[in-house]
Amino acid sequence: MELRTTGSVFVVFLCSVAVVLGQYWGVTYTLQSVCALRGSSVDLSCSYTYPSDLTVTTTFWFTTWKTGERRQNLRLDPEYTGRVQYRGDKKREATLTITDLRERDADVYKFRFITEQHEETYTGHPGVTLSVTGLQVKVTPTWVEKILTCSYTCPLTGNPSYIWYKNGQHVQQASSQQLSVSSYSQDSYSCAVKGHEDLRSPAVCVDDQYCSRVTYSTRRLCVLKGSSVDISCTYYSYLTVTSSFWFSPGRRDGWRDRSAPEDLAGDPDYAGRVQYSRTERKSSTMTITHLRERDSGEYRFTFKTRDPRYDWGDSFSGTTLTVTGLQVKVTPSTWGEKTLTCSSTCPLPGNPSYIWYKNGQHVQQASSQQLSVSSNYKDSYSCAVEGHEDLRSPAVYKPRNLSVSVSPSGEVVEGSSVTLTCSSDANPPVQTYTWYKENITSSKSSGQSYTISNIRSEDSGGYYCQAWNTVAATNSSFLMITVIVGTGISTAQAAAAGTTVSVLLAVILLSACLLCR
Description:
By secondary structure, the protein is mainly β. It has 4 domains: 2-132, Immunoglobulins (Immunoglobulin-like), CATH 2.60.40; 134-211, Immunoglobulin-like; 327-395, Immunoglobulins (Immunoglobulin-like); 399-484, Immunoglobulin-like, CATH 2.60.40. The strands form 12 sheets. Strands 1, 3, 5, 8, 9 and 10 form a 6-stranded mixed sheet that branches. Strands 37, 38, 40, 41 and 42 form a 5-stranded antiparallel sheet that branches. β8 and β9 (121-123) form a beta hairpin. α1 crosses α2 (15-21). The longest helix has 26 residues, at 491-516.
């Protein structure tokens, strides 16, 4: 039953109505509109109420404009893979966090919850309208100077402070949205919002095009581990450029922080993996091959001229590179099926096609990021991005090769203690081990090890473990334990007694022989 009363709209606007309806059904959004910077993160929050005799079983966020209010859980939307996180108490509050914002993320976001009575669901209206904007420097000429304005397409949330950069260097004592400069300045300027210095605007020239500047082809890159990447920029100076190179700020050499820029081409960690290419049009491309996850970081370009005042400084943010591997994530979907998602820690560029492998063999007609399989499948699955088939993800499979060992080994004597240990091979790793005894349905214990203290004869029988991961569960074979009933005399005591009896018999026989003589 879909509940959409008139009050569900008013609850967002009128506090007095929210108090009354809060006893029953309602969703109140903290903000109804949010403007955030492209590349940043945003939190969309709400609180919700429902009858106290019900239990909420499912909560999720969805968009409306792009999906036509299809109510698809954003966690399952490939467009948001690795970029969304749900937080909250799962009872009254909920927060959606979206990272690495893109302009196409601009949409209306709504919250929906489902109660234990599956037909009773509720969607909060009107939702939160998210706008995503980049920064631009607008130049307005006046009679004696030019006014620079750090502008955007929507009013940023809060009361932001601004940071200005001249030729890539921070302009001190400049924190307002506007900056006055000379009309004949040969410098370039860019701006950023305080707290988001890595999301600066493109640099603009005050006096036409003739100023020092560096423009990066892209500010963020997500690339597969083991592949190669090209990081490019164009640059200009009306003075002759005497030297230039790429560097990565904050890189460590042993325990020493590199505070001054150092050419990556001379860095031992990049030996044989970095190559520069330049053109006469003053563009530069750095190629890094055989990427490793520790190559993730920011990369900048710098140059020097005959006049140090027009060098391109090293404080201007460049291109942020994230190196990721592929992982197959397993989530329950419809009844009897599970959804496999080929995921990465950052959104790969473009619209990549995916290749799926079942037991190492290519699955034909499967090119999307997700694949539906049976809930209890016995196969292993891995994935790759088309064009990078040699960079497959690790395969996922249910627990296999289960074995059960007992310690101490050998005879099990009544009254002693034994420990059973279960081991297996699984990916994802086993989350739960459960122990069972033959012909008994209820479990005996949980955990990878099971200890039976003061064991009795009635504990004899077959034992097995069940290993479970997100793929499926697997049972081990039986381990038979036979408990030997003791006589109350230890082995050492029995040996000592036997020795004593032997000695006594020898003495008696010797005495008899002497008497006979």
